Model the fold of this input.
Amino acid sequence: MKLGVNIDHIASIRELRKGIEPQPVFAVSICEASGADSIVVHLREDRRHIKEEDLRLIREAVKTRLNLEMSTAPGIVDIACSVKPDEATLVPEKRQELTTEGGLDVAGNIKKVESVVNKLRKHDIQVSLFIDPLKSQIEASSRLSVEMVELHTGRYAEAKTVAQKKKRLMELEQAAGYASIKGLIVNAGHGLDYHNVRAVAKISRIKELNIGYSIICRAALICLGPAVGEMKALLHR
Ligand code: PXP
Done:
């Protein structure tokens, strides 16, 4: 199972002070050296974390694969075509949301999605569609010339009871099987953490998991001790 690491929240921390650190581009080589198979960033229309400048620097730094999460807004599509990530994942985007809510409604917007897919493909960018694990969305995706889908694992991650978790996991497993039969490479992500990831990682049809928030949260706490120690050492006269 491959791991794509989403580094948006390194930029979120920087934006708390609108300063210059931490720089997300410096996270690239650390993630790659630690086993990340791809680097994921989301250039949001409101630029709340990753900026265009970050994206260009990250493009230069990535040695594995760069996966750009993006909306279908024309301005964002133009940036993607000029930056040329290895892969673009089309996601729905609302300004008010804290994070991506729900999958892209490919079935309900087939013409619009198709035109964006075709434009990206012309620039040699592989395209993935971030969809809910539903047959209708998989069928619509398979009618477009995309290589991949990413199944939204948010409903599984948010399930409260064991029975609900089992049900959502089953949905993911069935959707992954169906998408593979349709010839699509299947990835998944959203809301995965150190407690809930293993069950999803066992689904053999899923090739890559894209994970961000839980990794950055973990990093902040694990590295807190050494960071305090380093500061304390500087206080010795
Ligand atoms: N995959 C997609 C398409 C996403 O939009 C996100 C969130 O940016 C993720 C994966 C990672 O989700 P999380 O930060 O909850 O791990």
